[in-house]
Design brief:
The chain is an alpha/beta fold. It has a single domain, classed as Rossmann fold (3-Layer(aba) Sandwich). The chain has 8 helices and 7 strands; from the N terminus they run E-H-E-H-E-H-E-H-E-H-E-H-H-H-E. It has a 7-stranded parallel β-sheet with strand order 3-2-1-4-5-6-7, with helices on both faces. The longest helix is centred in the middle third of the chain and has 26 residues.
Amino acid sequence: MLGFEGRRYLITGVLNEDSIAWHTARALQEAGAEVLLTGFGRSRRITEAAAAELPKPVEVLELDITRPEDFTELAREVAERWGGLDGALHAVAAAPQDALSGNFLTTPVDSATFAFRTAAFSLHALATSLAPLLSADGRRGSVVGLDFDSSAAWAGYDWMGVSKAALGAVCRYLALYLGADGIRVNLVAAGPVETVAGRAISTFDRIADRWEAEAPLGWDRADPARVTGPVLFLLSDLAATVTGEIVHADGGMHAVHLGGPTDGSAR
């Protein structure tokens, strides 16, 4: 029904099997799609080890999101292999420790800029570099980015929270300017998931505890696979009329202020 058979997708942000990106790659393969992954530097070997655990062999291409030339080379390599692309998952972000975990008021401008560049501007760089492939041969490709609720301030999330707010704006402007080529750009705002990036935030457990206690549908920080459904929906033709959207896959936490009923009836 989702129509992934024979389609081709680029997945960024796979570091290990705990990532939403890895589970998305597996789900796409199981649905009949081909995937390519990206990694960079010394951590690329970790990505390659995670790729080896997927149902089918997968190539890992180099992409350091702080190097503009890497996006150009990535697009060239994908074009050389496939000629076109049906979709891409943007699942990358990073911030120095002095931009997180309560350091908001004293964060240096370079660290705040780095967070913005990796979390928000990289979506622009990825989508624009891949745009010719996403519209090649009549394709109407889809770019999906991973987000976190930025409608409020979360203690400890700090400049990454600011950058995620910018990510939403970047998504909307990309939807505006790439729509004429039939390219859709959307985000999935996931609840807190135990990943390498998540563990870098000192207040992660505090945020996740609240999610698990108060989200109307409940939450499990150790289950990244629960987010793959909304990602697959946005990558599929079922979402052919959806662009510039933020889909919340967070157990409903974004919609409430005091959580679910205290008697647990929402469970």
